[in-house]
Design brief:
The chain has 317 residues and is mostly helical. The protein contains 10 helices and 4 strands.
């Protein structure tokens, strides 16, 4: 029976993630219609924040419990998984056209904060100063993005909402809570299985925990793409990667310093995250009529398989 329990947690977590991911997209779209903002800004903010909530809770808990490699690996691994796994699988299921040229600025911010991740962590610790720096960037970016899209949306006619704003807000909140519990159940089962395989905390954080906390992004992006809400799908991935570094790592560092105990995080994993981020930017060009096609999605998935394979080969205890 003990051998079956982890798989039951996996199944329960996956079911919760699928269900709540669907409702998060529904609530986010309705809020976009109600507040007369584009679907892109909803994907970059509300949906991205909601789907990044599991990473935040997991990283804070890991830091407090003395597992900095899991906390930091969760952030780095989630960003790699968001692009190589989430974007790759989403594009493989449903090609993603680039419909909003203004996304170029958000891509620049994503590349900049990924670079900053390497710079700030070079001294071997993410402390209070690094945390304040990252959270400040988050606040400025969020406020600027909302104001920019609000002005643009005011100039064009927006679709009317079909669900009252209060109900939409409650749907979003309930969905985020469901995603948190679903991720927790998934991670509980996955971690028990991974520990039986005998791998290090770095590998667990970069793979099992990272994929588990990226499942909300996966479900939200796939569901949004299938429902032809492409701006939400791509905005969720970009916004989540920005939020993972500025919010998850920033807030965690403010609450509890993260000492980097495994230097492979910065000699290997951050470089992978940066490289895959650059490949994503190139795959979206030109922004005026770009498209993440199925073959590009297959390339991203292949990159993720290669990354995980090299991790497990080098990270076994």
């Amino acid at each position: 029976m003990d051998l079956i329990i982890p798989y039951l947690w996996l199944a329960a977590g996956l079911a919760a993630l699928v269900f709540c991911g669907n409702w998060l997209v529904t609530g986010g779209v309705q809020l976009a219609h109600h507040f007369k903002v584009s679907a892109l800004i909803v994907g970059l903010t509300i949906v991205a924040f909601g789907t990044s909530a599991p990473e935040l809770f997991v990283s804070i808990e890991a830091a407090i419990k003395g597992s900095p490699d899991i906390a930091l690996g969760n952030v780095i691994g989630s960003n790699i998984a968001n692009i190589a796994l989430v974007l790759g699988l989403t594009a493989l299921i449903c090609p993603i056209p680039i419909l909003n040229k203004s996304i170029g600025f958000d891509l620049v911010v994503m590349v900049a904060v990924t670079t900053l991740l390497f710079v700030l962590g070079y001294n071997g610790i993410f402390g209070l100063i690094e945390g304040i720096c990252l959270t400040s960037i988050l606040i400025v970016y969020t406020v600027w993005s909302i104001r920019k899209e609000k002005k643009k949306s005011a100039a064009k006619e927006m679709e009317s909402a079909t669900i009252r704003p209060l109900i939409s807000i409650l749907i979003v909140i309930a969905s985020i809570a469901g995603l948190y519990f679903g991720s927790d159940w998934f991670i509980r089962g996955a971690r028990d299985i991974a520990l039986q395989w005998g791998v290090s905390e770095r590998v667990i954080g970069l793979t099992i925990v990272a994929v588990g906390t990226s499942l909300p992004e996966l479900m939200a992006s796939v569901i949004a793409a299938v429902r032809k809400e492409m701006d939400i799908s791509i905005g969720n991935i970009i916004g989540s990667n920005i939020f993972n570094i500025t919010m998850v790592l920033g807030v965690t560092s403010v609450i509890h310093p993260l000492k980097i105990t495994d230097q492979k995080m910065f000699t290997t994993d951050v470089l992978w995250a940066f490289g895959i981020t650059i490949i994503m930017v190139l795959a979206m060009l030109p922004l005026s009529k770009g498209k993440i096609s199925r073959w590009k999605g297959a390339v991203f998935l292949l990159l993720y398989v290669v990354y995980v394979f090299t991790l497990f080969r080098s990270g076994r205890v």
